[in-house]
Amino acid sequence: MTTQSEQILENSLIQQLGKLGYESVVIADEAALLSNLKTQLEKHNQITLSDQEFAKVLNHLNKGNIFDRAKTLRDKFQLTKDDGQSTYIEFINMDHWCQNQYQVTNQVTIEGSYKNRYDVTLLVNGLPLVQIELKRRGLEMKEAFNQINRYQRHSFWSAYGLFQYVQLFVISNGVNTKYYANNRKTSYKQTFYWSDKDNNRVTQLKDFANEFLEKCHLSKMITRYIVLHETDKY
Prior knowledge:
Blueprint: H1 6-19, E1 23-24, H2 30-45, H3 51-61, H4 66-74, E2 76-80, E3 86-90, E4 102-111, E5 115-124, E6 127-134, H5 141-154, E7 168-172, E8 177-181, E9 194-195, E10 201-202, H6 205-212, H7 215-224
Parallel strand pairs: 1-4, 6-7
Antiparallel strand pairs: 2-3, 4-5, 5-6, 7-8, 9-10
């Protein structure tokens, strides 16, 4: 088997996602992540937010654990504007799941206990909802799984905890690709292959991206098929 570097995998995936309708955006750090979030929320909600109003939104977003934030994502936020009027901010369109803003970025650097640089991030309305960790061909996917666990310990909680809004993780070495929901109790046994409508396993990253990461399908997975267990609030 020939080896393929992580960088080649990463670049190919980003190019492919661009063809699927994702806007490619450069987000180097926390400041850029927050600036982009403000712009995308304004676009999605057809509103202009002052710095003070956006600070209220961030304060609302920066509360609770992974479970709490999954609920926040699915609810609307009642915002009192600077002029005293009340409006609602939607973070994801739950009813018409194709009507959201989709972006792809890579190598976002966030500093927590350690400085971490993430491979490929999919943003919906500016929030990082899917994190993809790639390893070069020939390496075990469990290495990518373990890498994400390190990110959770080291830095996902920093930068207003926005990476705790990730709903789905994808791990791949190009040949094999799996996905799993964000859950601090997740073990590698809870990672899954995707299968097509004929029940054929989809393992190649390129094929997986075309099927699973297609914008409307991805939003449907997040809004319809992720179940929040009230009895296990992690």
